[in-house]
Amino acid sequence: MLLPIVIGLGAVAWLFHDEFNPAVFSHFEFTWQMAVAIVAAFIFVIGRDFGLSWRFHTIAGGDLSWSRAVKVDLMCAFTSAITPSVVGGSALAVFYLNREGINVGRATTLTLTTLFLDELFFVVFCPILVLLLPNDELFGAAESQTLIDGIQIVFWIVYAGIVVWTSILFCGIIARPEAVARLLHKLFSFKPLRRWQHAIDRTTGNMLETSTFVKQASKRWWMKVFGATVVSWFSRYLVVNALFWGFVPAASGLLVFGRQFVVWVVLMVSPTPGGSGISEWLFTNYYGDLIGNVSIALVLALLWRVLSYYIYLIAGCCLLPSYFSKRQSHKLKS
């Protein structure tokens, strides 16, 4: 928990030391619009958690109350905040769901379903944003060509990986689960890959169980869970839109939103816990041309991270002691 805090605040301190200009704020006035913007940003934070909690509550089919769904959501967010983004902390959703009385097999099925929905969101909305926004605007100003090139390369590589992974999940969960299971079992039976065969067989077994689960779901169910996914991700992005509305109202709302999409895709391969350090630097530089002032950009970056990151560290610290020390109120199932 301390590592991401040290990295994140260290990066902010370093950026402030190098870039912050106190003279910029000599005539700065904190307006009612800025105050409303911060409140609106916090409301969108709540919207993010509402969407994910709604999804957990829905996919569990009533076996997970709203309060317990919120708890699982906050613990998943906390785990993601203290683990490298490239590793991800959502896999522990299996453990958290099991702590709330969902048996391990079903918890794995539900987690794979949520993973598929998140990846599907990116696959669906990326082409839409690319069509709506010119390439030179989406990836930044021309004077930062090195940064633009780097962001574009990382973005498209990660997006290609998301498409491949989503395709595997789609085939393994919906289209041809048995064929995918046989193919992976055969592939990992070769000697160089044999050491991972047991893990792959367990994964494909989970995919088959997930396939049985989702194929029984109605169209209404799919609309609800994907709708909850969209609400969650849109709310996450609109936190920054709200801050820009208050502090940089001249900036294009669609462009701010589109760049958030790029930021979150790039941060998926961050080696630091929760993208700490990298997130602050990326926000300051990537949004710099829209803000026009590095000092204001630093303030917005810090506000964004407080609302989208540090708040979950605090929530996790509050939940963690009682979550692991109390006697389980729900009988765990293996």
Instruction: Give the distance, in angstroms, between the N- and C-terminal Cα atoms.
Output: 29 Å
Order of helices and strands: HHHHHHHHHHHHHH
Shape label: globular
Determine the mean pLDDT.
82
What is the count of β-strands? 0
Task: Report on this structure.
With 334 residues, the chain is an all-alpha fold. 75% of the residues lie in helices and 0% in strands. It contains 14 helices and no strands. The model is unreliable at 327-334 (pLDDT under 50).
Outline:
With 334 residues, the protein is mainly α. 75% of the residues lie in helices and 0% in strands.
Feature tags:
14 helices; 334 residues; mainly alpha; single chain
How are the SSEs placed, and which strands pair?
Layout: H1 2-19, H2 32-59, H3 66-82, H4 93-99, H5 104-132, H6 135-138, H7 145-175, H8 177-187, H9 197-215, H10 219-247, H11 253-266, H12 278-286, H13 288-291, H14 294-325
